[in-house]
Structure formats: structure tokens, C-alpha cells
Amino acid sequence: MLDDSREYLLGGKIWAYPQPKPLQFGKFMLTPLETRTLFRKRGWERIIAFQTRNPLHRAHEYAIVYGLEKLTKEGFFAGAVLNPLVGATKSDDIPADVRMRTYKVLLEEKLIGSGDRDLELWERAGYALDDQLLLIGLDVKMFYGGPKEAIMHAIYRQNYGFTDIIIGRKHADAPFDDGTSIWGDFDAQEKFNHLNGELLIKPLNVGFAAYFEEIGRVGLMEEFQPKGYHIINISGKELRRKLKNNEVVDNRVMREPVAQILKDYYRSAKRTEKETIKSTHIKWHETGITKQDREKRNGHRGIVIWLTGLSGSGKSTIAVELQAQLFERGCQVYILDGDNIRHGLNRDLGFSPKDREQNIRRIGEVAKLFVNAGTIIITSFISPYREDRDWVRGLLAPGDFAEVYVNAPLAVCEERDTKGLYKKARRGEIQEFTGISAPYEPPLKPELEIRTDQLTVEKSAERIMAYLKNSGVI
What we know:
The protein is of the alpha/beta class. It has 2 domains: 26-235 and 249-256, Rossmann fold (3-Layer(aba) Sandwich); 291-470, Rossmann fold (3-Layer(aba) Sandwich). It is built from 17 helices and 13 strands. The strands form 3 sheets. A 5-stranded parallel β-sheet has the order 3-2-1-4-5, with helices on both faces. Helix 3 (96-108) runs antiparallel to helix 9 (256-274), helix 11 (315-328) packs across helix 17 and helix 13 runs parallel beside helix 14 (386-395). It is globular and about 70 Å long. The relative contact order is 0.09.
């Protein structure tokens, strides 16, 4: 020991804790033991993995359909798993939480391969293609290593119990800075033919697909292009441009629900880019006590519960009841109410679209401070614009924002209007009144929807409490 050059030695017990799961899509993150158990319960003889780091367009979807139909035609009871990487990717890639929302909507609305399937095959099989699809995330970093990374992706999936992996065009590819290709289109497929060791999982090779006008669906170019059929095609660069500019994207290229999620993301990102800090010579100072330290002392996580809905839908009433239930439980909780905030912090703002945007921006920043203090913050704002709400979501870490759509029909809201605001708005005495002379954009995929014309205040608050418990917040 006298000759040991080390200054410190550590001893004691070592505890291994399970890897934390992202709150927004944690239920889709499974261990190899869990996936293998799931596949056995499904009774699948062959299990296909579809690797991706991108939102899916129709050609991506077709690769899944092609692989699943190929094995089904061969007599196998097969299943396919949309198995995206949710680890670190390039800075210009779509973030994992946004991508997972696009995958979920495709499965929930049964859109994968819709219009492109072999309907006769599935009728003969006696079950639906949609019943053979799953979504499971894989928390692995993307290296953009081309053919060699394709082999690595296969090994990952083999460990998780997959029997097949779809290998398509430019698998795990990224070009040089000048846009020229590093590898050939199908070099990854060729790589599997020259392995030095044993690999049990099998590559399921798929060619380049596109939508063909003559057949009215997506098909393989190797099959239909020689016939002179015309394709509906769009470059990745042009697709991103359309999404960023909120332009219509051809449904033959990408499904509308997927495009809408991506448009909302790009609008939120663009808005963040435009906001600059005017102050100079400033830096963020760490205070020594972290958000996690505060959450540990409080006994719960910090989160924004964002209540949104028409005036009179019940947001403030639910907020008060929810606060009471959380306070009774011993939680650090506070309400930011729309009217209250306009008495002070936002007293200089009106109700024009620009002022509404600034109103929500300030509230979002304040709410973020509360969350960093480990507090459960309940916000009660009409917040009519989807883009503004998504912008606030983007301020916070995944799982720290829960959008609750407080939904009541306009007629019910008008009946509850003790202030007479709706009547004044209909008479033209109040301008830019949400629901009458100004729009309200309902959430597309809120964490919760509360129908206050069907539930009592207490039941509404209890539903949110149940969500917080199930999500591990309290």
C-alpha cells in the first residue's frame, strides 16, 4: 500500500438501480427479458424488428408491411415491432419524444400500411395486420456507421429476442458534409453476406419503395418502375421544408396526423429560435441545490399540470379542488390562474394573438421555475393556441409537463357564464373572445381529457390525481 500512487480508495456496498424510464414513453421501454416474455405470450414464430431514427413516411411503413407479409405468405405466424432508437442522435434529427408521438398515432389509428396491404392475404390468415404490430423503444445511441452499424443493430435486436431485422436502403447512413454518399444504397444488405462469425437473427432485405399513381398505393420500385409507372416522390430536404413552413404534405408521402405533429414541433422550434436574450454579459448560476434534491425533500416530483379549455369549461374550479387534494397529501403545490396573473405580471397584455402568445410565454417561464423548485404547479389558462402550449412543453424536460384538456361544449360553457362574458362577446362588446370571435385549438394528444359536462369537480380532480400516481409524480 505504501507504493500505491492513488490518493483515494473507495469501499462499501454497490447498489445497482434500474435505469429510469422516460415518463412520456416509459411504457414502451422494455428490457430483453420483458420483450422475450412478451413475444412468447404473443405466440409469434418470427419477430421482425424495424429500426429507425426518423418519423415514418409511407415508404417506411411499406418496409414493415412487406416484411410482415413476406413471412406470413411463407406460413409463419409473425409479428413486427416498430423499434426506434431513442438514445442520442444528430442535433438536426427529430427528438425522441416527438418521434414517439408520431409512432403512437400511427399504431393507435391503425395507419401503418393502410391502403398498401395485401387484403386477400390477411383475409386468408384470419387476423389483421394491425394485431401483429407493436411499438418498443430502444435506448441506444445512433452512430451513423452505415453497414457495420447495421450489424450492431442486428445484434441488439437478437439479444432482445427478435428473429429478423428489416434492412433497407441506406441503413444507418449519413452523408459527407457536402451531401455525397459514404456508402452505396444497399451496402448494409451486402454486409450480412460476409460475416466472419455466427449471427442468429436474419436480415430481411427490402428495396426502395414509393407511391405509384397507376396502382394507387406504395410498392417496390424494382417491381413497378420498369413498367413505366409514375412515382409520387419527395426528397427529405423538400419534406422538411414543407413541414417547417406549415405547408400541406401529400398524404401519399406522409400520413396527415404524423405531418401535423411534426409541423407543431417545427413551429415551436422556430419560435424558440426567434427569441433572443437582449441582456449581455450574463451567465446562468447554479445554486448548489438541484431539482432532484428538492424533489427528494418534497417527496414528489415537480411538474406542470397545464389545464386548457374554453372560458367556463371548469379549469379554475378543478385547479382549486386539485390543489386542495394535493395539499392535503402534503405536496408542495401552487396555482397560476389566468385572471390572477393579469392583475400583476401580465397586466400590460391584452387579448390579441400577439399578447396571448406573450402571456403564455411568461407563464411558461414562471412555471419552469416552479418545477425546478420541485413544486407541482397547476396552471389554469384558456391558452387557445396549440403552438403556444407546445412551446411551453418544449421548455421542460420530458415528463415535466402534463396537458389536461378541460373539455365542455360551448353551450355548456355559456350556461355557466356568471360574468356574462359570452353574451357581451356575442353582442360585439368584447373583441377577440375565444370560442366566439377568436379560435380555440383543442389539444391533439393531451395527457388527459376531462369532460366536465359528464364529471363532477371532485371526479375530475381524482382523475388527475390518478394520473399523477400512475406516472410516479406522487
